[in-house]
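User:
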Amino acid sequence: MAPSPQRLSVTRRTWPLAQPFAISRGSKTTAEVVVAEIFDGDSRGRGECVPYPRYGETVDSVVQAIENMRGAVFSGLDREALQRAMPPGAARNALDAAFWDIDAKRDNRRAADFAGIAAMQPLVTAYTLSLDTPERMGAAAAAQRDRPLLKLKLSGDGDVERVRAVRRAAPAARLIVDANEGWSERHLTEIMPALAELGVVLIEQPLPAGADDALASLAHPIPICADESCHTSADLDRLVGKYDAVNIKLDKSGGLTEALALAEAAAARGFAIMVGCMIGTSLAMAPAMLVAQLASFVDLDAPLLLASDRVPGLRYDGSTVYPPERALWG
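Assistant: Predicted structure:
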C-alpha cells in the first residue's frame, strides 16, 4: 500500500535548443516540457513529458490533465490504477514515470528491478539531423561523421539528394530516415530504390497514419517502422503486414508501464523494436532507457539537441548513452 497522503505538483519549463530543429510538419527552437512530482513526506518521484500538437496536446491541456488527478493522487492512486484512470498520452506518461520513480525510492531498489531487467547496459543512440537543404544536411552530417547511426528528417521531394549528401559526408554511418508522414505513395515507389542503394537501414512513418494501407501491397526492400501509426499495444494488430518495426515513445504510449507491455506484444508479433523520444531533457529519456534495453534501434538523443540539459543528466559519450543514475530517476 502506498504511503498516504501523496501530494502532487506540476511544473512547466522551456529548454532552448542548440539550433532550430525542423521536420516535415514545421520547426521549433525550444522544448516545452511538463514535470509531475509526487511526494509522500519521505520519498519523491518525478516524471517529465513533452506535449505534442500532432496528437492534440498543448502544454496547458497536459498541465490541466495532470492537475485533475491531484485528488486521486492524494487519496492513494498508484501506477496500476493510473492506467485505467487516464488515457494514453503525455500527461499519463509524466505521472507514470513519477510513480515508477517514487516506488523505486520507497523500496530502495532500481526501477529496472521492478521491470525485470537484471542489468542495464549502455546503448548506442541515433543522432538526428534536422530537415534542411541537401547542402546543409551534408554539412551537418560531416560534423557528426564519426557517429555510428544517423537519423535524417525528410519531407518528400528532394529527399534522395538529401540522403546522398549525408552519405557522402558520413560514409561509414548507418542511416535511418524519418518522413513524419510527409510522403505519398509516389515518393515511396520513386525514392525507395535509391535509398536502398545508399544504405538506408530503416524508414520511419513514410505515409500519414490514417492513409498507410498502401504499405501492405508495396514491396519495400528497406524495413518500414510505424511511429505516428503506433501508440499502444491496441494498435498492433492493424499494423501487421504493413510495417516491419514499431517506434515506441513513452509520450505516445502514456508511460513506461504501457511501453513495456507494447514492446512485449510487438516482439510476439514479429515486429522489430525502436525506442524514440520527443525533444525533452534527460529526465524524459531516463525511463525510456528501460524499454531501449529491448530494442534493435535506439533514438534517445534529445538532450544532445538542447543548449543545456538537466544536472545531473544522462551521460553521453559520443553516441553511447548510459543508464540513469539514481539522482536523476529510478
